[in-house]
Fold this protein.
Amino acid sequence: MRTKLVVGNWKMNGNLDQNQALLNAVVAGTRELQNVKCAVCPPYPYLAEVQRTLENTHILWGAQNVSQFDLGAYTGEVAAEMLLDFSCHYVIVGHSERRSLFGEDNHTVAEKFKKVQDKGLTPILCVGETLAQREIGETERIIEEQLDAVIKLVGVDSLVKSVIAYEPVWAIGTGKTATPSQAQGVHLFIRNKIAKQSETTANGIQILYGGSVKSNNAGELFSMPDIDGGLIGGASLVASDFISICLAAQR
Ligand SMILES: O=C(CO)COP(=O)(O)O
């Protein structure tokens, strides 16, 4: 049985005071959780605060992005090695906002994935199609290309030390959640695709769903056989919502 995982992607939100209140509430509200892992990914400047607050708790943390380069002359970038100083566990790579707004292509995302793994951190690889791509029946092809770029660089067996997040672009921040069966269909496609190369990896890998997950739809999504939890945007900024979503993963 795969453990469920719920990760909050705070995106570019928060400040020291708000973060502290949110983290304290989430720690208290999820204390009784069993067999569910929870994590938060704050913006870089708050990693020290998050580390200080969450060390010695049951909640893990990570970063939202990383450089594809090692330490050096790359103004504005953050290397995977630096994230080790903050005891990060996870690093999100290839979020659709990075792909569409910051020009990250499949190859760059694969390089980032590799850098994260090389430092012993766990990448959360985001994949997903746009509405236009879904409407012309390209969902599987797009996701296959996104996965293949990574598999080509690191090999299929390395995926077992990663998490995949299926985030249909049309569902992110729109309030339009994929139906549980739409999401399940794509999750199964991803798992079957990996299984063709490695059954063990396919059975072990956690595949999260992301895109307008809220407290009122999380339970149904997480009950699908190939949905192993969620990557939560907006609702991860509201303590009571994020706690409810984490609790929904337990059922
Ligand atoms: O992009 C997401 C998480 O990475 C999803 O965001 P929302 O939950 O706000 O739709």
User: Anything to note?
Assistant: The chain has a mean pLDDT of 97.
